[in-house]
Amino acid sequence: MTTSVIDSPAQPEAAAAVSGLSGGRAIAAALSVVPGLLLASGIAAAALGLHALPGISSLSPMILSIFIGIAFHNFVRTPAWAKPGVVFSLRRILRLAIVLLGLQLTAQQVVAVGGTGLAVIVVTLLATFLFTTWVGRLLGVDAKLTQLIAAGTSICGASAVIATNTVTDGSDEDVAYAVACVTVFGSIAMFSYPLLVGALHMDPHAYGLWAGSSIHEIAQVVAAAYQDGAQAGEFGTIAKLTRVMMLAPVVLTLGLLLRRRGGKATTKVPAPWFVVGFIALIVLNSLITIPSGIKAPVGMVTTFGLSMALAAMGLETDIRKLRAEGLRPLLLGLIAFFFISGFSLLLIRVLT
User: What mean pLDDT is predicted for residues 171-198?
Assistant: First the structure.
C-alpha cells in the first residue's frame, strides 16, 4: 500500500525544509533591495548637501535628486544590482512619503481647494485623455500605446500607465515607452513650472492647483509645487492626489469599454492605499494637535523619502527609450503635455 504524503513520517521534515526555503527566499528578496536603497539614499543625501550651498538652495532637494539620478543613469548607467532597491524606492518609499505628507495638512486646507478646484481637475483629466486619444489616431500611433500615454499624462504618470495596461494589455515595449515618455515630459514640467510663476502672476493657490492638475507624477508635482512655498506645495499635493483617486474609476471604465468592444480586458483595479493613508493622516492632524517634536522629524523623513523617490525616478529615466518606437509617440506625448498644461491653466484663469 502506498504511503500518502499526509501519513508519511518524513512529512514534518519536508514541511520544515519548504518553510526554510521560503524563509530564505524572503530574506534574499529583502536583502536584494538594500544596494539600490543605499544608492537612492546616497543621491538624496548628496542633494540635501547641495541644497545647503549658497546659490543652489533655491532648488529643492527633490529636484536636485532627480537631476543627479538622471545624470548617473545616462552617463554611468544604473547597475543591475541596484534595480530592486530603485524600484522599491520609486514605489514603496514614494507612497510612504506621500502618506507621511498628510501630517503637514489639515481638513480645512483640503476644503479650501473647493468645488472650483475639483472641477478644474476633473475636466482637465477627461479632456486630456480624450484629446490625446484623438491625436494618437490622427498620428497613426498604436491604439494601446496611445491609451497608455493618455492615461499617464492625464492621471498620474507611470502608476497610471502600469494600471491602465492591466486592461489594455499592451506590450512591454509599449509600457516602457509610455513610462519613459511621461517621466521625461513630467520632469520638464517639474523644472519649468517654477520658472513661470512670476511671469504668469499666479498666487500660491492657483499655482499649486495648476501643478497638481497637470504635472504627470506625484513626486514631480510635490517638487515643482513646493518650489513656490508651503502653501503652493500643499495645494499641489491635494490636487494631485485628487487626480490619483480617479485612477480606479478611469481604469475600470476603460476596461468595461474595451470588453464591450470585444477587446481583451480585465476589471481588476489597483487600490490606491497610499491615498487612503494620506487622507487618514490629514484627518488625524485635523482632529488632534500633534507635537512639533514629532511633526518636525516626520517632516524631515518625508522630504528625504521624496528625494529618494525622485532619485530612483532619475535612475530609471533613459532618454534613449524614447527613440525605440520612433518619433510619432514622442510627438504625441509632447502634444499631450502642452495640452494638459495649457488647458488646465486656461480653466484656472477662467474659473478662479
Answer: 86
Nearest partner of 144 among 173, 172, 181, 174, judged by Cα: 174
Q: Give the sign of the dihedral formed by CA 210, CA 327, CA 250, CA 93.
A: negative
Local structure of residue 2 (DSSP, 8 states): P
Do 160 and 347 touch, CB atoms closer than 8 A? no
| DSSP letters for 57-124 | TTS-HHHHHHHHHHHHHHHT---GGGHHHHHHIIIIIHHHHHHHHGGG--HHHHHHHHHHHHHHHHHH
Pick from 305, 281, 306, 308: nearest CA to 294: 281
Residue (of 98, 158, 156) closest to 124 by Cα position: 156
The answer to whether 198 touches 69, Cβ cutoff 8 Å, is no
Residue 197 corresponds to which cell in the numbers above? 510663476
Short-list 102, 101, 104, 117, CA closest to 242: 117
Check if the beta carbon of residue 352 is closer than 8 Å to that of residue 116.
Answer: yes
Average pLDDT over residues 211-236: 90
C-alpha grid cell for residue 7? 501519513
Higher pLDDT, 324 or 250: 250
Question: What average pLDDT does this structure show over 290-301?
Answer: 87
- The whole-number average pLDDT for the span 121-127 is 95
